[in-house]
Amino acid sequence: MAAWAAVVKKGLTKAGKAVGQKALSKATEATKRFQWRPFVLPLLTMIVLIPALVIFFFVQVLYNQFVNDAEASATSGTSSVIGTKGINEAVLKWKDEMMAAMAKPKPECAGKSDCGPMFTPDEIQQLIPYILALTMAESGGNVPNGDIMQSSESMCGGKMGCITDPITSIKYGIEHFYKVWIEVKDRAAKTNNSQVNNFDNIIKITLQSYNFGSGFTGFAFANGAIYSEELAKKFALKHATRSDCGWRSPYCYGNFKYVEKVFEFLDFSSSGSQQVVQNGNLPTLQSAKSNFSPEGQSVIDPTGTGGNVTPRLAAMYNGVKSNNLFNHSVSCWGNRTWGEHPKGRACDFMFRFGENSNSSSELAEAQKMITYLLQNQEKFGIYYIIWQNKIWSTKDPTRWRQYEFKSGSVDCTKPGSGQQYNTLCHNDHIHVSVY
């Protein structure tokens, strides 16, 4: 019995150990399953969601590039920045000489072989109309001594009449314009004020300083830094040595209407060369130019964003503003990674941010502005315009197409509302892109 009991005991012990080990193994597996279970769902979500987000972002970028990129063709020629009017042959015959003078080395770098030009090619194209208009205002090209830009004082330290030929007059006139232009631009950039640091204000202070002398630049920036005829009058009155000078009295120093006089020879007319077809609120063209040469971002954004834009875009903006076609917020250059804005080739003309700007007055204002842009499509190099869920493009200039933009819950092909919808579908602003 004792031996049998021992055998039974041994068997039970072995069986007990086996059962215990099996139970322990199952318990360990259960514990492991229990420990990992809270992390399984988040882990699977991340595995699925991250690639999906990457794909969505990539597709969105490609779509935005497709909608917003303007493909500039590398062909010859440049578009005119603005037009001129009333420039006579006595001035116009010196245009090439003026442009050549603008491309010469900076005067402060005399004798240095690595000095850059006073003006870049884009700046020359942008500013030559002002130089021609300035020369018309100064002399009309018809002066006995040949000083067509009236620059003797610049050459001879304040003395008049020392220049006797047009070539020398142009040389010192361009240098004087350059020095004033650079000083005004530098001062304006330091203000961080979009009302000061924009092309319209800079060119006006530059022109008035050409007439008054560079002292007006310091005076302007010490007194608000925004050009006005009243500011010019104050400077003229301060420096006048007499009080009777005909129509200028008592502002008997220089010409306080000099900017106005120069602008008489600049064409900001809304009548372009292209025939517009009116289709309700959205005018179109029978044909449009699409082969434009590329331009660099050589012009300070006139809307004061702190970036640079192309001469074409600056010309388009200045044309709209000079004709009082849009009197709301405008933003051109944008610090982003896609589209036309960072390339300096697009402006947003904002009516009421986030709201559907479809009142009768807003639609009429938009129609007038878009008509002007299409009339001047070739002049400004207009590529496409987006407004009220529709897009006009040089690719199909005879009609406005549905703007087929989609992003998240926003689908511009379907009715919608809200700030995001109205902005992304361009119900609150007019988007204008140039080549």
Structure description:
The protein has 435 residues and is α+β, with helices and mostly antiparallel strands. The chain contains 14 helices and 14 strands. It has helices spanning 2-68, 89-92, 95-102, 121-138, 152-155, 166-191, 199-212, 215-221, 229-239, 258-263, 311-322, 360-375, 377-380, 419-424; strands at 83-84, 266-267, 276-277, 284-285, 299-300, 308-309, 329-331, 346-350, 382-387, 390-393, 401-402, 406-407, 410-411, 429-434. Helix 3 packs across helix 6.
Described by strand count, sense and barrel closure, the largest sheet is:
6 strands, antiparallel
Q: What is the count of helical runs?
A: 14
- Cα distance spanning the termini: 109 Å
- Mean pLDDT across the residues is 82
Report the helical percentage. Answer: 40-55%
- Main β-sheet, spatial strand arrangement: 7-8-14-9-10-11
Helical/strand content category: alpha+beta
Count of individual beta strands: 14
Strand proportion, as a percent range, falls in 5-15%
Question: Shape, please?
Answer: elongated
Low-confidence stretches: 1-10, 59-81
Helix and strand pattern: HEHHHHHHHHHEEEEEHEEHHEEEEEHE
Radius of gyration from the alpha-carbon trace, in angstroms: 34 Å
Describe this protein with a few key phrases:
14 strands, 47% helix, two-stranded antiparallel sheet, six-stranded antiparallel sheet, 435 residues, alpha+beta, single chain, disordered N terminus, Lysozyme
